[in-house]
Each structure stands twice: as C-alpha cells, then as structure tokens.
Amino acid sequence: MNCFGANLAYQKPRMKRVHQIRKPAQPHWVGDGFPVRNFLSYQEPEPFRPFLLLDYAAPHTFAPSTKARGVGPHPHRGFETVTIAYQGEVAHRDSAGHGGTIGPGDVQWMTAAAGVVHEEMHGERFTREGGTFEMVQLWVNLPARAKMQKPRYQDLKSAAIPVVALPGNAGQARVIAGTLLSATGPAHTVTPVGLWDVTLRAERPTTLPLTAGHTALLLVQRGAIVVAGADAVASNELAILQRDGSTLELCARGGDAQVLVMTGEPIDEPVVGHGPFVMNSWPEIRQAVDDFQSGRMGNLD
Ligand code: MN
C-alpha cells in the first residue's frame, strides 16, 4: 500500500484537504525553560480559530541543575492554556490556588478565564536529573460569555486518557479531548475541541471522522505524512486543513509518524490580544492590564 492516491480526494468529496502548510519560526526561549518554535499567533486573522497560539518545544536536552528553569509569575485572561508534556516535567502554580506537576503523557488544561497569575517551571525531579524535554502549549480561545468566569485547572494524567485503535490497523490515538471513534477524552471544554495524539504505522492509510465546518490542525512531531492521498506534510510542519469535509485520511510515509490533531468549532467573535490577554475589545484589554497591575488577578508568593 502506498500513501499517495490511496483514496483519491476527488472520489471522496467529503475528505478534508490541506489549506496551508507552515514551517516553524526560529526557536525562541520562553523564560529559561522552554525552547519553543511558534506556529500560530492570535495577531493573525483566521483560519485557525478557536486556537490562538501554538508553541512546540521539540526534544531538547537539559543538564542536571539545582535551580528550576522555566518562566516566573505572569498573568493570563480570556482563554485557556493547554500544555502537553511528552518528555520531562512541567510544574504549574497559580493565584487561584491550583497547582500540579505533569510528566510524560500528562496534560494540564488551565482555564485562565477572568484571570490568574501563574508560573510554569520544570518539575523538581527533572531539574535535578536533567534529560530530554519535549512539550506542546496550545492556547484555546473562550467565547465572550466565558471570558470572565472563574479560573479552572484540570490535571489530566496519562492513565486517564483513553487510547483507541485506528481503522486499517494503522496505529492508535490518545484522546485527550473530544470524541474519536469509540473514545471520549477526559478534558472538559467550553466549546467543542478535539485534541488527539496520533501514532501512525508506516504506509497504512486510515480514515478518521471529523466535524464538517470545524477547524483542524495537524502538527507532525515525528516522521512524515500524506493527507487525503495527496498532500505531503513533513516533520516539524503544521498543516491547517480546509474547514469543509467530514473525514480525515492520514498515512505515515516512509516510516512511523506521530501527529497531534487539534480540532475545534470556530468562535466567530472579534479577537483582540495584547501579550498574555486575549479579549474581544481594546477597553477589555485595558481593563485586564489595570486589573493585573492592581493585583486583582491575585499574586503568587
Ligand atoms: Mn503562562
């Protein structure tokens, strides 16, 4: 079986095709703990709403240390930060009293909503022992009605994330959020969002159901894939799919592949962002800055 032309797209008009492929920006450091490459930023218009930002920290080796690396106290308002740890550990602490450490396979789903001040650091053990670090951080917008709700923190351990086999003996998916085939992820989301860690076996096409009209993004972390029997996406690239279509055909080309699939119902409201705040208007941004500076988002001591 070959990935190209396995199911010709014109024979299957419901199949999603690639709209745009993005290569990562040059790496930059978030604090001294997260060497990330940015793929999406809320300063751009469509076509990836409800997602606002995607940073990928590809595998990077850290030496053992006595001082935890990471990013110190900073605020967020108006959206959610979703962090997936693949290798290493991330520890979170926030002004709403939430905290936790996630390790390989775990996810933290932090709903900043009305506002938190938090810090994101390497975990204690990873700091002490060093090793390879790999992580994704995705920012998910909140609809206007939920932007000023109470903050929430979901600590989703790997053991609670169901794994589903893919059709065609093509591999498996960890379903963090949303429903894929027979599995529903543990994350509570405000609007419909799907987040799936997909591992594909070489040269085995598989077809997954998606919701027509929703945004779908594919981050290829390892290997190379072909979408819809036609569109090649390489390692370290992000594919933004067309919103039309209700099936996704993936095939790992030349070897196994790992892909993060992100789907979501677009939130069709104005996006006005400034640094760590994403609201619907400039007066709301000015209010966020003022609330943070006056300590109304709380403090970390
Ligand atoms: Mn943060």
Describe the protein in words:
This protein has 301 residues and is mainly beta. It contains two helices and 26 strands. It has helices at residues 124-129, 282-293; strands at 18-22, 28-30, 34-40, 51-62, 70-76, 79-87, 90-94, 99-102, 107-111, 116-122, 131-141, 152-156, 163-165, 171-177, 179-180, 183-184, 193-200, 206-209, 215-222, 225-227, 231-233, 238-241, 247-252, 257-264, 272-274, 277-279. The strands form six sheets. It has a seven-stranded antiparallel sheet with strand order 1-22-19-24-17-14-13, with no helix packed on it. Strands 2-3-4-11-6-9-12 form a seven-stranded antiparallel sheet. It has a four-stranded antiparallel sheet with strand order 5-10-7-8. The longest helix is centred in the last third of the chain and has 12 residues, at 282-293. It is globular, with a radius of gyration of 19 Å. Manganese (II) ion (MN) is lined by residues 74, 76, 81, 118, 120.
The fraction of residues assigned to DSSP E strands is over 45%
* Count of alpha/pi helices: 2
Largest sheet: 7 strands, antiparallel
Structural class: mainly beta
CA-based shape: globular
Key terms for this structure?
single chain, 301 residues, mainly beta, binds manganese (II) ion
